[in-house]
Design a protein that fits this description.
The complex is a heterodimer.
Chain A: H1 2-23, H2 26-45, H3 57-96, H4 98-103, H5 109-143, H6 148-172, H7 179-204, H8 211-226, H9 235-238, H10 252-277
Chain B: H1 2-49, H2 56-59, H3 67-78, H4 93-98, H5 101-106, H6 112-120, H7 125-136, H8 149-154, H9 162-165, H10 170-187, H11 190-203, H12 208-221, E1 235-237, E2 242-244, H13 246-264, H14 269-281, H15 287-299, H16 306-316, H17 320-333, H18 338-365, H19 369-394, H20 402-418, H21 422-435, H22 440-454, H23 460-496
Antiparallel strand pairs in B: 1-2
Classes of the chains: A mainly alpha, B mainly alpha.
Chain lengths: ~280, ~500
C-alpha cells in the first residue's frame, strides 16, 4: 500500500513540476491566447450574416456559427497545444540533462514517464477548461440556457486529444529533439482522422479480383482495425445540436471514453517500451 | 532477462492494442447502428409523408434506389417484435391500413428507444448489412440532395467520403459556404446561390437553418424577380401533376429541398412547418398538404404557435370540425387567448354556413312545390342560425368584425340567388368582397357564376379570369393525355427490351 502511494506521490510531484514548466512555454501561451481570441471573435464573424431573415432563423444561424467556430478553434488550438507539449517534455529534459538528475534519485523510469505523462495531461486539461469555459459563457450569453451538452463535447474532445497525446509522447521518448515528435504528432492527428478512408479502400479493393488489389484491401482492413479512428469523436460537434439541456441519449460516450483510455494505455506502454531501452 | 521483459512488454502492448481494436469495433457497430436507426426514422417519415409523391431520384435514370424495398424488409422483420408496441393516438385508420407497424411506431419520438433496441439487436442484422452495402454503393437516397441527385448517385471513380476531406471540420466548412450564399444574396446573384446551398447541406445535412433559409430563397426571393409564365410556355411535370413555368417550378423545388431536409432531420418541426405553411399554404394554396405537414410538425417538439397555423390550414381546407376542436384544446391551455375564442366561433359559423348551403341546394332537387317550400324554410332557418353565430362574433350585422360582416352578406346573397334576384345578389357580393379580403376570391367566383346565370355582362377582368381558367384547364388536359401516352410508350419499350 505504501509502495503504491509512494509511486503515485513521486509521479504526482513530477507531474506538477512538468505542468509548471509547461505553462511557462511561450508557444503554448501563444496558442492559448489565439484560441481565446478566436472564440471571443466568433461573435463578430456572425456580423457577416444577412440581417434580413425569416423568423428566428437569424438567431439560430448565429448560434450555429458561434458553436461551429468555437468547437473548431478548440479542436485546432487544443490539438496544437497537445502535440507541442507531448512532443517536448521528455526530449527537452534529455537535452537539458535534467532527466539524469531525476533518474539518479530513487525514481523508476516507469514512474518518471507516468509523472511526465500525467503532467502533459494536466496542461491539456487546464487549457481545455480555459477554452471550454469561455465558450460555455459565450453560449450562455447567447441562448440564455446553460449549455450542458457543451460539457460532454469538451469531455469527448479531451479524450480525442488523449489518444494523440499518448502516441506523440511515445514517439518523443525515442527522439533527441521535439521537432520530429511534433511532426509525428501532426501526422498521427491527420491519419487518425483519415482512418475512415481505409474502409473505403477495403470496400473498393477486390472489385477487380486482382491479387494485388485483394492484398491491399486486406492490409487496409488490418490497419483500419488497429489504428485509432479519431472520426469516432465527431460526436463532439453533433452533440451540441441536440435539444438544449437534453441529456445525451447517445450510448457512444462511455464507449468512446473506454476506447480512448485503451489507446492511451497502448501509447503509454509503447512509450515505456521505447524509454526503457534508451541509454541514459 | 532483458529479452524476456521486452517480450512481455511487447505482448502487453499487442494485447492492449487488440483490446483497443475490439473496442473500436464495438464503437463502429454503435455508429453504424446509429446511422441505420436514423435512416429508419427518416425513411419512415418519408413513407408516411411522401409515399404518394414521386421524388426526384425516381425520375432520374441513375441506379435503382433501394430505400423503399429495404424499408419494407426492415418492417417485415420487425413486425413480430413490435406486436405489443402501441402506435401514436393521432394515427388515422387509413394510415393503420396502409403503413407498416414500424413506420407508425417511428412517428412517435417516445418510441425511439424501442426502435434503437431493435436496431442494435440481431433481429435486423441482415437488413443492417444491406443498409451499409447500399450506403456504400450510393443506392440510398438519403445520401443525396435534391438539386442534382443524378450527379450524386452516378458519380464514378474513386470517391472519397466527403467528411474525410475536412478532417471532421465539415460543419465549419458548411458555415463558410453559407456565408458565401449570404454574400450572393446581398449582391443579387440569386442563381449562384442554388449550387452552393446544395454544397452546404451536403457538407452538413443537419444544417436545418440552411434548409429553411434555402427554401425561403427558392420559394420567395428568386421567383419574386421573375414574371408569371404564360400558359402556353409552361411545361407539364408528371411528378408534381401540374403545368409549371420557370417561376412556378421554384416553389416545387423549394418544397423538394425541404423534403430532403425532413428525410435527414425527421424530428425537426421547423422543416415540416415551413413546408406546410410557407410553401403549401401561402405559395401553392394546397391546403390538404398544408394540413398534412403541419399535423406532422405538431407531432414533434414544437413552439406553441405551430398548432394555430395548423387549425387555420384546417379551416382553409374545409375541416371546420377538426379546426374547432383544435382551437378548443388550444383554449384549454391558454384560457385568455382572444384569437382562439374568435376562431372557435368562426369555425362554428362556417359549419352553420355549410349546413345552410346544403339545405339550400336541396330546394332545387325537390319533386313537388310543397317539398321545395319545406326545404326552403328549413334552409332559411339554418341561415338564421348561421347569422346568429356570425353576430355573436361581430355584433349586429357583423359591424365589429369585417369577416363576420362579409359572411352575413354572403348568406343574404345566397338567399337572393336562390330567389333568382341576381342583380341584388351581385351588388351585395361586390360590397362583401371589399369588406373582408379573406372573402374576396370566394365572392368573385360567386359574382361570375351569378352573372353567367342571369346573362349579366361580365367585366373585362372577369372575362379574362374565365379565359385564363379555361386555357389552363385545356392545356392541363392536353398535357396529361400526352404524359400518359409517353408513359405508355415508355412502358412498351421497356417490355420489348
Amino acid at each position: 500500500m505504501s509502495a503504491a502511494s509512494s509511486f503515485f506521490r513521486g509521479s504526482w510531484t513530477i507531474a506538477v513540476y512538468t505542468w509548471r514548466e509547461g505553462m511557462r512555454k511561450k508557444t503554448l501561451i501563444g496558442f492559448l491566447i489565439l484560441s481565446i481570441l478566436t472564440i471571443f471573435g466568433s461573435t463578430f464573424l456572425t456580423a457577416f450574416l444577412s440581417q434580413t431573415t425569416v423568423g428566428d432563423a437569424q438567431v439560430d444561424m448565429e448560434l450555429k456559427l458561434v458553436k461551429d467556430i468555437c468547437v473548431t478553434a478548440i479542436s485546432i488550438f487544443g490539438i496544437l497545444i497537445t502535440i507541442f507539449i507531448s512532443a517536448s517534455v521528455v526530449p527537452n529534459e534529455v537535452e537539458n540533462k535534467v532527466v539524469y538528475t531525476i533518474l539518479s534519485k530513487p525514481v523508476r523510469r516507469f514512474q518518471y514517464l507516468f509523472g511526465k505523462f500525467l503532467g502533459v495531461q494536466l496542461i491539456v486539461i487546464i487549457n481545455l477548461v480555459l477554452m471550454g469555459g469561455l465558450f460555455f459563457v459565450q453560449l450562455y450569453l447567447k441562448q440564455h440556457v446553460l449549455p450542458t451538452l457543451l460539457l460532454w463535447s469538451i469531455l469527448l474532445t479531451y479524450f480525442e486529444f488523449l489518444i494523440v497525446s499518448a502516441f506523440t509522447f511515445a514517439i518523443s521518448c525515442s527522439a533527441a529533439s521535439a521537432v520530429l515528435p511534433t511532426i509525428a504528432g501532426l501526422f498521427i492527428y491527420f491519419t487518425g482522422n483519415l482512418t475512415e478512408y481505409l474502409k473505403d479502400v477495403t470496400a473498393r479493393a477486390g472489385q477487380t479480383e486482382n491479387a494485388l488489389d485483394v492484398l491491399i484491401g486486406k492490409i487496409a482492413n488490418a490497419l483500419y482495425l488497429i489504428l485509432p479512428n479519431l472520426q469516432n469523436f465527431s460526436l463532439k460537434s453533433s452533440i451540441l445540436y441536440l435539444q438544449p439541456n437534453d441529456p445525451p441519449r447517445d450510448v457512444q460516450i462511455p464507449n468512446l471514453i473506454i476506447y480512448a483510455l485503451f489507446y492511451a494505455l497502448s501509447g503509454y506502454v509503447l512509450s515505456y517500451w521505447i524509454f526503457r531501452r534508451k541509454e541514459l | 532477462m532483458n529479452k524476456s521483459s521486452n517480450l512481455k512488454i511487447g505482448l502487453l502492448l499487442a494485447a492492449v492494442l487488440a483490446v483497443s481494436a475490439w473496442q473500436g469495433q464495438r464503437i463502429q457497430h454503435l455508429r453504424e447502428s446509429e446511422m441505420f436507426f436514423r435512416w429508419i426514422i427518416g425513411e419512415s417519415a418519408r413513407a408516411r409523408m411522401f409515399a404518394d409523391t414521386q421524388t426526384l431520384e425516381q425520375e432520374n435514370d441513375g441506379p435503382k434506389m433501394m430505400d423503399s424495398e429495404l424499408l419494407q424488409r426492415v418492417s417485415d422483420a420487425a413486425q413480430d417484435h413490435l406486436r405489443d408496441v402501441s402506435v401514436p393516438d393521432d394515427v388515422t385508420d387509413k394510415e393503420k391500413g396502409t403503413l407498416s407497424k414500424l413506420v407508425l411506431v417511428a412517428a412517435s419520438e417516445s418510441q425511439e428507444k424501442t426502435i434503437w433496441d431493435l436496431v442494435c439487436s440481431d433481429v435486423l442484422a441482415a437488413e443492417r448489412e444491406d443498409f451499409l452495402k447500399y450506403s456504400r454503393e450510393k443506392k440510398l437516397s438519403s445520401v443525396a440532395s435534391v438539386f442534382d441527385t443524378e450527379a450524386v448517385y452516378t458519380e464514378g471513380g474513386a470517391s472519397v467520403n466527403i467528411g474525410n476531406i475536412f478532417l471532421g471540420f465539415r460543419k465549419i466548412a458548411a458555415n463558410f459556404v453559407w456565408l458565401q450564399v449570404d454574400k450572393y444574396w446581398h449582391e443579387g446573384l440569386l442563381f449562384r446561390m442554388v449550387p452552393l446551398m446544395k454544397t452546404c447541406v451536403m457538407l452538413d445535412p443537419t444544417f436545418v437553418d440552411a434548409y429553411l433559409m434555402g427554401a425561403w430563397h427558392l420559394a420567395y426571393n428568386i421567383p419574386v424577380q421573375m414574371d408569371e409564365t404564360p400558359e402556353p410556355l409552361k411545361k407539364y411535370y408528371p411528378q408534381y401533376k401540374a403545368r409549371l413555368g420557370d417561376k412556378e417550378l421554384y416553389y416545387y423545388v423549394a418544397a423538394d429541398f425541404l423534403k430532403d431536409g425532413i428525410r435527414k432531420n425527421p424530428r425537426n418541426y421547423k422543416l415540416y412547418f415551413d413546408l406546410g405553411y410557407t410553401i403549401y399554404n401561402l405559395k401553392l394554396k394546397d391546403y390538404a398538404n398544408s394540413v398534412k405537414y403541419l399535423s406532422e410538425a405538431i407531432r414533434n417538439k414544437h413552439d406553441k404557435w405551430v398548432p394555430r397555423m395548423l387549425y387555420i390550414a384546417m379551416e382553409l381546407n374545409g375541416q371546420f370540425e377538426e379546426a374547432q376542436k383544435g382551437w378548443e384544446k388550444y383554449l384549454e391551455n391558454e384560457p385568455e387567448n382572444a384569437t382562439a375564442k374568435r376562431f372557435i366561433i368562426r369555425n362554428r359559423g362556417r359549419i352553420e354556413d355549410r349546413k345552410a348551403d346544403e339545405a339550400l341546394s336541396k330546394v332545387a332537387d325537390a319533386a313537388t312545390p310543397e317539398e321545395a317550400q319545406a326545404a326552403r324554410e328549413r334552409a332559411y332557418a339554418l341561415q338564421k342560425e348561421a347569422v346568429k353565430v356570425w353576430e355573436e362574433m361581430g355584433g349586429p350585422d357583423g359591424e365589429d368584425d369585417p369577416y363576420a360582416a362579409a359572411r352575413i352578406m354572403r348568406l343574404k346573397a345566397k338567399r337572393m340567388l336562390q330567389q333568382e334576384r341576381y342583380v341584388e345578389a351581385v351588388a351585395i357580393l361586390e360590397h362583401a368582397r371589399f369588406t373582408s379580403s379573406e372573402f374576396f376570391e370566394e365572392a368573385s367566383g360567386m359574382i361570375i357564376e351569378a352573372k353567367q346565370k342571369a346573362d349579366i355582362p361580365l367585366s373585362l377582368s372577369e372575362k379574362l379570369a374565365i379565359a385564363r381558367r379555361e386555357e389552363a384547364a385545356r392545356y392541363l388536359e392536353e398535357s396529361k393525355a400526352q404524359a400518359e401516352a409517353e408513359a405508355k410508350m415508355q412502358q412498351e419499350a421497356n417490355t420489348q427490351k
